[in-house]
Amino acid sequence: MGSAPSRSRTGSTANLPRKDQESTNDNKHKTKRPSVTATPLADEAEAKDVMISYSHADKEMMMMVKDYLEDLGISVWVDKTGLQAGVDFLSKIGQAIIDAKVFISLLSEKTIQSKYCQDELALAYISNKSIIPVALKNESDLFPIMDTGMKLQLARFKWVLLVDEEKKEDGLKELLGRIKKEIRSPDDEKQVKPDAPSGKVLKKQSTKKYINTRSVSMNSSVDFAEDLALTFWDNSFRDKDPVPWNEFTQVFCAKFHNDLEMMYGNESRIEWLLAVLKREMAYNDDTLYKENFIDFCTIDNEHRPLWECVQNQAIESYTMMEVFDMDSSVRVQAIENLGKFNSPTVRNALLDLMSGKDNNVRAVAAISLAKTGAQDKEVVKKLLDCLNDKDRLVRESGCLALGHLQLKEAVPKLVQLWRNDFISHVREAATIALEKIGGEEANKAMHMTKVLSDEIHMLTQK
């Protein structure tokens, strides 16, 4: 029996089939190539208790909720002016989500169709915010018409219903009580702080504190005991180890057929999920080892049901893909701010995005990865690889990221780039990085190069 490959988790952002653009207005706004340096906010308002995401078709209901909460002492941020995509949208709405303690998604058919509302929810989710869905229609009417991402992100939360006029007051009281419970927490548990020493890989753990976890997405139709990782493997494969990946997927799809149909629907989305699982469990190999399967189903050192872990992974992968998608309406400010959340979700997805094909995504992901402070071998290797990238913005970002982390092992490559890169901005970024890293080796290399450069310049002038 062969040994399992060593585990190095990276949250997959395999290409999920994109939903149709639901609004021609959304399609008009294309965001420019992002800068590698953060842009100060144009109008930094005080952080609010609550941010409400809504469709402007539901503005009257939004104002009713906002006024109710503010009358009872809850501060609320909403976009009342209909900000357009661009600097104002990216900075103000993105920052409002990051700063708020609670994120309310006001759900209607229009919200579900809005790309902006989808992006705002994705950012709130990946930023580990307390999310409260407030439905203006019955859940049974809205859930089936949601795209896969919204289903994954919202299904686990208890919804507040503002549907029946006679029960609206009860719904508002429930909403107020849940908000107060969140904003009165003694510690900000929603923002995950670094809990691993520099140089160590963050372990797979539960990083989200849920409000009234629901059963619709996290629990499967399969009996709980049979869904536990060890039981699932033993019942399905007995002593066989490893098993061909195709055999595993056949067993998995047969056992969870009803759940896959409900959450993912069409075949292309199920194929996306299986691609994510193959990368996470089998490292894109054609065989699956029991050790890696059990590792995938272990959270906080506890074996969990397979379906729960599948859903966790799907949510992480889909949500990170939404936030970092180059058509995302909140992506630049979102990526710049995600560095403050040093969680396995963010760190692993950033690593994965740095292997993607989009130059802009790789560049911004490198900066965000440096902001997390992670310095394990995989992170260092990814950032060093940026210095060899064909795209100048990726090389520039790699320099700044390595300088931010003050990685002395990067000095030789940075010096080489400083000497030889034909793009002046890249050479300037390498200089900044070397100055930040400092130390005898960096100073000596820069001094020697400068002396040689001056000598060559003098010779050419004769």
Distance between the termini: 72 Å
**Which residues sit in consecutive blocks of at least 5 with pLDDT less than 50?**
6-44, 83-90, 187-218
What is the strand arrangement across the widest sheet?
Answer: 2-1-3-4-5
**Number of strand elements:** 9
- The whole-angstrom Rg is 24 Å
What attributes characterize this protein structure?
five-stranded parallel beta sheet, 23 helices, alpha/beta, 462 residues, two-stranded antiparallel ribbon, 9 strands
Write structural notes for this entry:
With 462 residues, this protein is an alpha/beta fold. Helix content is 54%, strand content 6%. It is built from 23 helices and 9 strands. The protein has helices at 24-28, 59-71, 87-99, 109-113, 115-126, 139-142, 148-154, 168-183, 224-227, 229-237, 245-255, 257-263, 267-282, 290-296, 306-324, 331-338, 344-353, 359-372, 377-386, 392-405, 411-420, 424-437, 439-461; strands at residues 50-53, 76-77, 102-107, 130-135, 160-161, 243-244, 287-288, 298-299, 302-303.
Task: Outline the fold blueprint.
Blueprint: H1 24-28, E1 50-53, H2 59-71, E2 76-77, H3 87-99, E3 102-107, H4 109-113, H5 115-126, E4 130-135, H6 139-142, H7 148-154, E5 160-161, H8 168-183, H9 224-227, H10 229-237, E6 243-244, H11 245-255, H12 257-263, H13 267-282, E7 287-288, H14 290-296, E8 298-299, E9 302-303, H15 306-324, H16 331-338, H17 344-353, H18 359-372, H19 377-386, H20 392-405, H21 411-420, H22 424-437, H23 439-461
